[in-house]
Amino acid sequence: MPHPAPVAAPHRLPEFSAAPPVGDLSLEARLAAVDAAMTIRLEEAAVAHEVRTAHIPTEPVALADVITVPLTPTLQPPPAPYPTPVAALLQRAHHRLTTSGWCSGTLVDAHGARCLYGAIHAEARGDQTLESRGLEVLMDAIRRQFGDDVDSVPSFNDAWGTGRVPMRMVDQAAGLADARGL
Questions:
Q1: Are residues 72 and 145 in the same domain?
Q2: What pTM was estimated for this model as a whole?
Q3: Whole-angstrom Cα distance, residue 137 to residue 140?
Q4: 92-134: pLDDT as tens digits
Q5: Residue 153 and which of 20, 89, 110, 119 are 20 to 30 A apart at CA?
């Protein structure tokens, strides 16, 4: 049986390598090429993730609620005080809550922990004007974050099971008071 005649090979494009041989590139050039390739792959993966999860409703998470570190309150020095009186009051109240503890349902519990109002009241040291201005700025900071549904500082304090969010709000209110020059 005769062998079939060879068929002409179809026209092929010349083969080009995507990159010059490795020996021709310096280490820095190879690292830059790998970095560029990985950046493109990561960007494509991020877009694909966004598309796959776009329908899932999410709420933003405050990092202070997620990332916690062990506190040794008695060993922590008080922070440098703000120069304005209301900001300094709120900063002292925050430090008191950090060192003495936070509670809800009462101004001061049996262990000396205080609620937000109790800490501000104690740190105002009888100055009613300073106390009311501190509570006013704290309410403003709370309403900025949680809306106008919050009635009072005690009701906000008692709505939480842990002191992380209330204490964070006192710290933010101190920064707000400082920014306002109060």
A1: yes
A2: 0.59
A3: 5
A4: 999 888 888 888 888 888 888 899 999 999 988 888 999 999 9
A5: 110
